């Protein structure tokens, strides 16, 4: 006769085995749905237009400044349209989408993120943005973004109920490349003067308080 402990171990092992089989089936079937009848890794498209950069000088270390030296910070406005509904199946919990830009700096390729969003259901999978503002302001760690060519890409990340994360990017169309105009010297000096004046005002207020 088997003891109670042995019976419990047998039942537990069988339950774990069946669970692993079910998980493997769910993961495999969800991957098949991503590949057939239409391969979402190749056929998910997006269109971006009217990308307009705006640049400011920041002296806070939270915006890349070092030793109080003004740092170029760039934000963008843009139009974006994409349909992520083919990425949803019975194992999709939510989809994380994010807009990045690549640029060359000191012989290496850098990537920065301007905007992101979380899509929680298939009903919200159609993204249509008009004159949207980037969520984040970005800066280059070394010099600045003036004169740099930005190549925009829209990435997606499927977060499933069961299984590993699935990554991909859309086949983007439209004006997804732009060059950040170099700042004029007189503009730079004017901005530097404004920054200096603001710092002096803050110092005076601190002394008064």
From TrEMBL:
A GO BP entry: protein targeting to ER
Protein family per UniProt: Belongs to the SPCS3 family.
Main location: endoplasmic reticulum
Pfam families (alphabetical): SPC22
Role: Essential component of the signal peptidase complex (SPC) which catalyzes the cleavage of N-terminal signal sequences from nascent proteins as they are translocated into the lumen of the endoplasmic reticulum. Essential for the SPC catalytic activity, possibly by stabilizing and positioning the active center of the complex close to the lumenal surface. Essential for viability.
Bilayer-spanning residue ranges: 15-36
Signal peptide from the UniProt entry: none
Protein name: Signal peptidase subunit 3
Annotated source species: Naumovozyma castellii (Yeast)
Alphabetically ordered keywords of this record: Endoplasmic reticulum, Membrane, Signal-anchor, Transmembrane, Transmembrane helix
Sequence ranges of Basic and acidic residues compositional bias: 180-195
């Amino acid at each position: 006769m088997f003891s109670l402990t042995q019976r419990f171990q047998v039942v537990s092992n069988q339950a774990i085995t069946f669970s692993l089989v079910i998980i493997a089936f769910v993961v495999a079937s969800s991957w098949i749905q991503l590949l057939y009848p239409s391969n979402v890794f190749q056929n998910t498209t997006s269109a971006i237009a009217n990308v307009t950069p705006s640049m400011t000088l920041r002296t806070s270390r939270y915006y890349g400044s070092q030793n109080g030296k003004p740092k170029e910070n760039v934000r963008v406005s843009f139009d974006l349209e994409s349909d992520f509904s083919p990425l949803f199946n019975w194992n999709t919990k939510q989809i994380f989408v994010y807009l990045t830009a690549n640029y060359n700096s000191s012989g290496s390729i850098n990537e920065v993120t301007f905007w992101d969003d979380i899509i929680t259901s298939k009903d919200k999978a159609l993204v249509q943005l008009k004159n949207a503002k980037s969520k984040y302001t970005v800066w280059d760690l070394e010099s600045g973004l003036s004169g740099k060519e930005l190549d925009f890409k829209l990435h997606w990340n499927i977060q499933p109920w069961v299984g590993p994360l699935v990554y991909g990017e859309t086949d983007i169309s439209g004006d997804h490349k732009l060059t950040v105009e170099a700042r004029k010297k007189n503009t730079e000096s004017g901005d530097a003067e404004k920054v200096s004046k603001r710092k002096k005002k803050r110092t005076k207020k601190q002394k008064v308080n």
